[in-house]
Each structure stands twice: as structure tokens, then as C-alpha cells.
Amino acid sequence: MVTGFILVTHFTYAQNTATKKHSSRKVSVKTIFFDDFARSSLDRSKWNVRVTGETVNNEQQAYVDSSATIYIAEGKEAAGAKNGALVIQPRFSAGFTTKEGKKFDFISGRIDTRSKVEFTYGTVAARIKMSEGMGFWPAWWMLGTGRWPETGEIDIMEFIGQKEWTNAALHGPGYSGNTPFAKRDSFAVKNPVTNWHIYSVDWTPDSLMFKVDGNEFYRVTRSMIEKYGKWSYDNAKFLILNFALGGAYPGGVNKVKEPYLGLPGPSVDLIKQGKSKMWVDWVSVKQSK
């Protein structure tokens, strides 16, 4: 009896020791991209500034390459950011004409990492705060190169001025546009988008897990997607930050048609007053090794 007891105890100890060793094994994480906007201007070795003469979704802005719409803020304007913050700010510019001859009353900014930083899988995150305003449409997202929607689109965060929520979405072949893969997160009811939040996605070969401040609110798996079409998330993607105004998506929700599609008069006044901004403290991409 005594011997048996000792043997059992020894086995349990050995088993527990093995379990502890296994559970203490650390996963190595590599940061493959990071920008905390600690320079006086946008780092063009990491980011492209897009200029568009045409828009999609009936958006009401033209994207321009200008320090009026894309700049680095410091001090009080970047309060809460450690080393300064990227600011994307739409501006009222009545009758602005693109080189293609198309007219807009607003200009704004859009940046991406295409051909500079493209990757497959990882944890993709950005710390962001935004101005409230119906029809404002700042976004943090990813695209693959090639034809849309076959290349796949991952919308980590979209805000269209409905102050109670932001959303995440996926677009691909068979599930684009009014996609069935969209989910609102109502965290902003208690902690508004005008505060800093971390918007992220954990992207693996078989799933995408969307989070706000580390809290998962939406998970989409390969099997869910393949009921509608091709899984378009096993190819390289690049990062995008932009601030659109009005258009089909905000207009479809808020039903505003005047003075601009999806963008009501009070929001136009906020833009004219310089009260429409998207601040970005940092952006990171990490992968497990």
C-alpha cells in the first residue's frame, strides 16, 4: 500500500511538472510593421498618399495629397498619444475640381501601404479616436492587390457617425457590397469613439477575429465564408486608413439626401469648423513565429 501510494504520487508530480513546462512555453511574436507617427510628417517609406479623381460608393470627397488633410499632430491636439498622432481631416472646398474634371465640395485623405508593406496573417491593430458627426465615414481596413472583390476586403473598423456603434465587415466574391458578413459593436454606448480605442483583427488561415480594446465581438470562419463564395483571405493584404464623407453606406443607414447624400447640414458645419478628424496613435502588425 505504501509503495503504491509513492508510485502514484510520483506519477502525478511528473505529470504536473510536464504540464507546467508545456503551459510555460512561450510563443515568439515578431512585429513586422509599426508606426507611431513620431516624425514631423508622414513616413513615405511606409505609406502612400492616394489621390483619386473618381470615388466609389457615391462618396462626397476627393482624396488629395495635402498637409491640410493629412498631417502629424503634437501636444494638446494629440492628447493621449505618446509620440504624436496622425490626423486625417476632411475640409470643405466648394467646387474643388480633380484633374479628371470632376467636382467635389470636400477634400480628404487616404493612405495605404500597398507595395511597401503587404503580408498574410497576423494581429493587425491601430489605436484610433474620431470625431462624431452623422455621415462621417473614417475607416481602418485592408485590401489585397488585384480585382475587387475577388482579392478580399477586411474592414477592421468603420464608423458612419451613428455614435452608438462601429462595425467590422468582410467582402469577397459572392458576398460583397451588402455583405452578410458585417457586425456592429455597441461598445460606444458607454465609451464613445471620441475616446482612444484599439481596433484589431486576429487573422489566421481559417478565421478572422475582430476586437475592440482586446474584446472579441465578431468571428468569421472559413466554413462560414465558403457557404457564399471563395475564402479570399489567404493572400497578401495591405493596410488602409481613410476618411470618407457621406455616400451609399452612410446614406443607406441615415436616409439623408440633402444637402449631400448621407451627409446632413449639421455635419457639413462641423467640417467647416474643423471638427471632423480621425486621430491615429499607432499602427502595428504582429505575427507568431
CATH topology: Jelly Rolls
Most strands sheet: 8 strands, antiparallel
CATH architecture tag: Sandwich
Count of the domains: 1
Distance between the termini: 48 Å
Number of strands: 19
Structural class by SSE content: mainly beta
Helix content, binned percent: 10-25%
Can you give a write-up of this model?
This protein is mainly β. The chain has a single domain, classed as Jelly Rolls (Sandwich), CATH 2.60.120.200. Helices cover 14% and strands 39% of the residues. It is built from four helices and 19 strands. The protein has helices at residues 2-23, 222-225, 248-254, 265-272; strands at 29-35, 48-49, 61-63, 70-73, 85-88, 91-97, 103-108, 110-112, 118-119, 122-130, 136-144, 153-158, 166-171, 182-185, 197-203, 207-212, 215-221, 237-245, 278-288. Mean pLDDT is 92; it is low at 1-22.
Write the layout of secondary structure elements.
Elements: H1 2-23, E1 29-35, E2 48-49, E3 61-63, E4 70-73, E5 85-88, E6 91-97, E7 103-108, E8 110-112, E9 118-119, E10 122-130, E11 136-144, E12 153-158, E13 166-171, E14 182-185, E15 197-203, E16 207-212, E17 215-221, H2 222-225, E18 237-245, H3 248-254, H4 265-272, E19 278-288
Parallel strand pairs: 3-7
Antiparallel strand pairs: 1-19, 2-8, 4-5, 5-19, 6-7, 8-18, 9-18, 10-15, 10-19, 11-12, 11-18, 12-13, 13-14, 15-16, 16-17
